[in-house]
């Protein structure tokens, strides 16, 4: 499903290259459940953004579902993202001007679904995550944990083939965190490929394998 070959990412700072990702080679099969771990600043979010087609490496090759990603036109890349990827962002990235309901609905707009079908899916998500009572509120009216839950519901609404989750339980209490991990495990058993970033050994254990990053390299 995913093949990364000699991926580098650097930023030019004051005329010198500052490396964030250094020569990462990785193959991820459909149905895998991977936990990426590593200290703050080791490049976890950057790597996830590259895998999620939201950031471009400075060098290397990336194949996603058989497509040579870096050779694709931006429009095709966006379509590929919208069709197959659900993304839970570390800092939620909810759309401030949209209600909880509308935020969860956004990935469904790109699918060929009727208004009735969209309504049923959003209703199911609101129900499943216990946020029916929050559906007409805006992100600014929610707690951090509630925003995180909405971010997870949005990422899952369109039943993506690949779920990318950056610290998805970072702002949840331990019971909520365990529920989300149990849900991820169930979704993975049903066929969803999952890559999560986590600082928690316990959460990492829900996955099938762990990738440890240190200074932008796989240890
Ligand atoms: N636009 C940028 N310009 C320069 N450096 C950047 C830029 N974006 C990220 N970096 C650097 O890349 C490094 C890796 O950042 P990244 O967000 O991937 O780390 P992380 O492993 O996700 O950390 P955390 O656990 O704190 O979320 C950091 O040192 C950061 O300063
Ligand atoms: Mg990060």
Question: Topology, please?
Answer:
Blueprint: E1 2-13, E2 16-28, E3 33-37, H1 44-51, E4 59-64, E5 67-68, H2 74-84, E6 85-88, H3 100-109, H4 115-128, H5 144-157, E7 162-166, H6 174-189, E8 193-197, H7 201-204, E9 209-214, E10 217-218
Parallel strand pairs: 3-8, 3-9, 6-7, 7-8
Antiparallel strand pairs: 1-2, 1-4, 4-5, 9-10
Helix pairs in contact: 3-4, 3-5, 4-5
The structure holds adenosine-5'-triphosphate (ATP) and magnesium ion.
Adenosine-5'-triphosphate (ATP) binds next to helix 1.
Bound molecules: adenosine-5'-triphosphate, magnesium ion
Number of continuous helical runs: 7
Strand order of the largest sheet: 6-7-8-3-9-10
Global morphology: globular
Rg: 17 Å
Unreliable residue stretches: none
Write the CATH architecture name.
3-Layer(aba) Sandwich
Task: Walk me through what this model shows.
The protein is an alpha/beta fold and 219 residues long. The chain has one domain: 3-Layer(aba) Sandwich (Rossmann fold). The chain contains seven helices and ten strands. It has helices at residues 44-51, 74-84, 100-109, 115-128, 144-157, 174-189, 201-204, and strands at residues 2-13, 16-28, 33-37, 59-64, 67-68, 85-88, 162-166, 193-197, 209-214, 217-218. The strands form two sheets. Strands 6-7-8-3-9-10 form a six-stranded mixed β-sheet, sandwiched between helices. Strands 2-1-4-5 form a four-stranded antiparallel β-sheet. α3 (100-109) crosses α4 and α3 runs parallel beside α5. The two termini are 22 Å apart. The model has no long low-confidence stretch (mean pLDDT 96). The protein binds adenosine-5'-triphosphate and magnesium ion. Residues 11, 20, 38, 40-46, 90 line the site of adenosine-5'-triphosphate.
